[in-house]
C-alpha cells in the first residue's frame, strides 16, 4: 500500500447531539412503569392508540414550511415532486401526542365512539437546542377524552391521574394534584377591564411568574415594573394599582380548604359571569372527586396553578410530587411537577370547522421514572439470565437443552456463545450480565449424570463479607442430579 494513500474514513461511533441511548434496566423499568399506568387507564375505559411517528406539517398546525425549510421546531423534510409537477408534501416527526390525536379524531370521526377516550405512549421529537436534561427525543404518556364538554370528564382525568401515580409507585401523601380554571382568570381579566389580545397576554405572562417573584413582584410587574435580582429594570404592563387588585386577589385566594378557596374566588371574580361559571366548574370537580374517593389530601383547588392558562380554555391541573430529594450540591429541594393537563378547544376544529371539546393529561415519563428512582422504588441492578457455561464444544446440544428446560420452567436463561476456551472469561461474562446462577457440566459430571450449580449472588456476598470458616460452611456451588437442575435453580432464585 502506498504511503501517501489516505486512510479509510470511518464514521464516528457517537450518539447524535441531543439524543441518547437506553440500555437494559432503563428500558425495562420504563416499560414496567408505563404498563402500570396503562393498566389504570384501561381500567377507566380508555383505549390505547398508536399513531404514526410521521405527520404532515399541515396537520401538526403549529409549524409551517418556510421558504427553504420548515420552522426549526420540528424535524421535517419535503417529499419529492408529485407526478405531473408541483412540490411534494412537507412531513415531520411528531412533536407531541396531541396533534396526532386531533388528526385521528377528525379523520375517523364517523367510526370512533363519541366521546372518544384514548391513551397514547411513545417517543416524540423536538428540533430544539439541547441542554442538560433536555433532549430532542423523549417519551410522552397522554390520556384524553375528546367530545365531552362535561366537567365530569375533567374530574375523571384528575382521579385517574391520582390512581396512575399511586399504581406506578408514588405513595399517597407524596403527591398533590392542584386544579385551577382558565374561566376564572377570564373573569378576573373582565373585572380588571382588560381586553383580550396583547393586554391580556401581557397579564397572563406576568401571572405565570407568580411562583418566582411572589405577590409583590407580580403587583410591580402589572403596574410600573421592578428590578430583577441582577439589578436590571423590567418594564411593567402599565395597569393602574386598582386594576392589579383582582389579579392579586385571584392569586392569593387559596384558603384552608376547597370550600374557603371557592368562596375567595367567588369574591375575586365579582360580577363576571364567565368567572362565576369557572368557579362553579371547580366546585363541581371538587364534589365529584370527593365522591370518587379523591379527598383534599390528594387533589385541591389551587389558583396559584397558572402555567398553561394561555393555552387551556377551562379547568387545568398539575400533579406535583411533594417529597424532598437532594440536588447535585446536596441541598434539599422538592421534586416538583411530573404531570399536567386541562381542557382545550380547537382540537379538531382546524380539520372540521366545528368546535370539539376535549380534556387530557400528559405525564412526564422521564421525570416520573427519576422520581421513582429517587424514592428507591426503581434503579436497582436487574437480575440477568442464568448462564449455562460451555466446557465441551462438542456437547453444545446438551447445554442448549439445559437452557431450554429452564426457559420452559419460566426461568430466564442463555448458553455462553463466546469462545469457551478460557472458563474464567465465561464467569466474567456471567458477572457482567448480572447472572444470579451459572450452570457447569464437564465431561466427568456428564458421565455421572450431575451438574454443578453456582450461586453467583451468594458467592459474591461470601467473598466480600464472610470469613474463611464461614466461606467453607456456606458453599456457593453445589452438585445436583441433572434431573434436579430446574428445581435447584428455582430454590436459589427463591
UniProtKB/TrEMBL annotation:
Q: Where is the composition biased (Basic and acidic residues)?
A: 1-20
Q: Which domain of life is it from?
A: Bacteria
Q: Name one GO cellular component term.
A: cytoplasm
Q: Where in the cell is it found?
A: Cytoplasm
* EC class: ligase
Read off the InterPro entries from this record: aa-tRNA-synth_II (IPR006195), aa-tRNA-synth_II/BPL/LPL (IPR045864), Anticodon-bd (IPR004154), Anticodon-bd_dom_sf (IPR036621), His-tRNA-ligase (IPR015807), HisRS-like_core (IPR041715), HisRS/HisZ (IPR004516), HisRS_anticodon (IPR033656)
**Subunit structure comment from the entry:** Homodimer.
Similarity comment: family membership = Belongs to the class-II aminoacyl-tRNA synthetase family.
Protein name per its UniProtKB record:
Histidine--tRNA ligase
Q: Which organism is it from?
A: Paracoccus thiocyanatus
Amino acid at each position: 500500500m502506498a504511503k501517501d494513500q489516505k486512510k479509510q474514513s470511518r464514521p464516528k461511533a457517537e450518539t447524535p447531539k441531543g439524543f441518547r441511548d437506553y440500555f437494559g434496566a432503563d428500558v425495562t423499568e420504563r416499560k414496567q412503569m408505563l404498563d402500570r399506568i396503562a393498566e389504570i387507564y384501561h381500567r377507566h375505559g380508555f383505549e390505547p392508540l398508536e399513531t404514526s411517528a410521521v405527520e404532515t406539517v399541515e396537520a401538526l398546525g403549529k409549524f409551517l414550511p418556510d421558504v427553504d425549510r420548515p420552522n426549526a421546531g420540528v424535524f421535517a423534510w419535503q417529499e419529492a415532486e408529485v407526478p405531473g409537477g408541483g412540490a411534494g408534501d412537507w412531513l415531520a416527526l411528531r412533536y407531541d401526542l396531541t396533534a396526532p390525536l386531533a388528526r385521528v379524531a377528525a379523520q375517523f370521526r364517523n367510526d370512533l365512539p363519541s366521546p372518544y377516550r384514548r391513551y397514547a405512549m411513545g417517543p416524540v421529537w423536538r428540533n430544539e437546542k439541547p441542554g442538560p436534561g433536555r433532549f430532542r427525543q423523549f417519551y410522552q404518556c397522554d390520556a384524553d377524552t375528546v367530545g365531552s364538554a362535561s366537567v365530569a370528564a375533567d374530574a375523571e382525568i384528575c382521579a385517574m391521574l391520582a390512581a396512575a401515580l399511586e399504581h406506578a409507585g408514588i405513595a399517597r401523601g407524596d403527591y398533590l394534584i392542584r386544579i385551577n380554571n382558565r374561566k376564572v382568570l377570564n373573569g378576573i381579566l373582565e373585572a380588571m377591564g382588560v381586553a383580550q389580545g396583547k393586554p391580556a397576554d401581557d397579564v397572563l405572562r406576568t401571572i405565570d411568574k407568580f411562583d418566582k417573584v411572589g405577590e409583590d413582584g407580580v403587583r410591580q410587574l402589572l403596574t410600573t415594573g421592578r428590578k430583577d435580582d441582577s439589578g436590571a429594570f423590567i418594564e411593567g404592563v402599565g395597569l393602574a394599582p386598582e386594576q392589579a387588585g383582582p389579579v392579586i386577589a385571584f392569586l392569593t385566594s387559596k384558603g384552608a380548604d376547597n370550600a374557603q378557596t371557592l368562596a375567595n374566588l367567588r369574591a375575586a371574580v365579582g360580577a363576571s359571569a364567565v368567572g362565576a361559571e369557572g368557579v362553579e366548574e371547580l366546585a363541581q370537580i371538587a364534589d365529584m372527586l370527593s365522591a370518587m374517593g379523591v379527598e383534599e389530601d390528594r387533589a385541591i383547588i389551587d389558583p396559584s396553578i397558572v402555567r398553561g392558562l394561555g393555552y387551556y380554555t377551562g379547568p387545568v391541573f398539575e400533579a406535583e410530587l411533594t417529597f424532598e430529594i437532594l440536588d447535585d450540591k446536596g441541598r434539599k429541594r422538592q421534586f416538583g411537577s411530573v404531570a399536567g393537563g386541562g381542557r382545550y378547544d380547537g382540537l379538531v376544529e382546524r380539520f372540521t370547522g366545528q368546535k370539539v371539546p376535549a380534556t387530557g393529561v400528559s405525564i412526564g415519563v422521564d421525570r416520573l421514572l427519576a422520581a421513582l428512582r429517587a424514592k428507591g422504588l426503581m434503579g436497582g441492578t436487574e437480575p440477568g439470565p442464568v448462564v449455562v457455561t460451555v466446557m465441551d464444544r462438542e456437547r453444545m446440544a446438551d447445554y442448549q437443552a439445559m437452557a431450554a428446560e429452564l426457559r420452559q420452567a419460566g426461568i430466564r436463561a442463555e448458553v455462553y456463545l463466546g469462545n469457551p476456551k478460557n472458563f474464567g472469561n465465561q464467569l466474567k461474562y456471567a458477572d457482567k450480565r448480572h447472572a444470579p446462577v451459572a450452570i457447569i457440566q464437564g465431561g466427568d459430571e456428564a458421565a455421572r449424570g450431575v451438574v454443578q450449580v453456582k450461586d453467583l449472588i451468594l458467592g459474591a456476598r461470601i467473598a466480600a463479607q464472610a470469613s474463611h470458616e464461614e466461606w467453607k460452611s456456606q458453599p456457593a456451588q453445589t452438585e445436583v442430579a441433572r434431573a434436579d437442575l430446574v428445581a435447584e435453580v428455582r430454590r436459589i432464585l427463591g
